Amino acid sequence: MQIPIYNQNAEQAGTLEVSNAVFALPMNQDLLHQVATSQLSNQRRVIAHAKGRSEVRGGGKKPWKQKGTGRARHGSIRSPIWKGGGVAHGPTKDKNYSKKINRKMARKALGVALSSKVRDGQFVVIDIITMEAPKTRIAAKIMRNISGLFLKKSTKKAHPRMLVVVPSTKEDGLSRSVSNLPNVAIIEARNLNSLNVLSYPNVVALKDAVGVIEKAFTS
Questions:
Q1: Do 112 and 202 reside in the same domain of the chain?
Q2: pTM for the structure as a whole
Q3: DSSP symbol at 61
Q4: Which of 72, 96, 120 is the C-terminal boundary of a domain?
Q5: How far apart are CA 159 and CA 182, in angstroms?
Q6: Listed residue (29, 186, 3, 216) closest to 113, CA to CA
Q7: How many CA atoms lie within 13 Å of 218's alpha carbon, on the beta-carbon side?
Q8: CA 141 to CA 126: how far, in whole Å?
Q9: In the 8-state DSSP scheme, what is residue 5?
Q10: Residues 37-93: tens digit of each pLDDT
């Protein structure tokens, strides 16, 4: 299939032949959900941790003797039934939330996500982005020009947030210039996954980055 290419001034500069196996896949919501939730689980940091009776400080001495006091028998003030004692069956940082994703599944999910963006007019290819100097002001102007394309193409309400896919983050200082823009994120094509694509309403890919994405599907 062919998709249009634009320059950084949002003017059409030709067309690009792209692989149907990457950019024309049918929607598969089950696959996207399974892969995206697995990736979110793998990113999850285990923070919740409750101390058990063996981790709570103190309680080494028996509170009172076993017999003769008329009170209940206790061996430690750090028992879960005591105030300030350990927690019984509480959450621990040893819990593992990670899930395995097959490489084939992750790759196809990326294709499904990209294909969905193409159908909805939320995927734009830019031939090249050149900047006189790595300035946020210049980058902001270029991104405003590109965001205008989504207003024309999108079948849904356009949103300013966008993900810029580049072949390398050393792309003419673009990475440094974009880092201060709140609605724009930049990522290398080799690191792109379906969760990245789904997390942003609009995706902008440099022409050379499209080749890197397609190469990942055949490797």
A1: yes
A2: 0.81
A3: S
A4: 96
A5: 13
A6: 29
A7: 8
A8: 15
A9: E
A10: 999 999 998 899 999 999 999 888 999 999 999 999 999 999 999 999 999 999 999
Q: How far apart are CA 20 and CA 1, in angstroms?
A: 6
- d(CA 219, CA 215) in angstroms, rounded, equals 6
- C-alpha 166/C-alpha 200 separation (Å) is 15
Domain identity same for 109 and 147: yes
155 pLDDT more than 70: no
* Judgement on whether residues 105 and 136 belong to the same structural domain of the protein: yes
Neighbours of 191 (CB within 10 A): 9
Specify the DSSP element, H or E, that contains 162. Answer: strand 162-166
DSSP H helical segments within the chain, as ranges? 20-23, 29-43, 103-119, 136-153, 174-178, 194-199, 207-218
Residues 6+ apart with CB under 8 A from 37: 99
What domain count does the chain have? 2
Residue type, 161: R
Note down the domain range covering 152. Answer: 2-44+98-218
d(CA 40, CA 209): 25
90 and 32 together in one domain:
no
Decide the pairing of beta strands 123-126 and 2-6. parallel
The answer to whether 129 touches 177, Cβ cutoff 8 Å, is no
Name the domain boundary from 96, 129, 161.
96
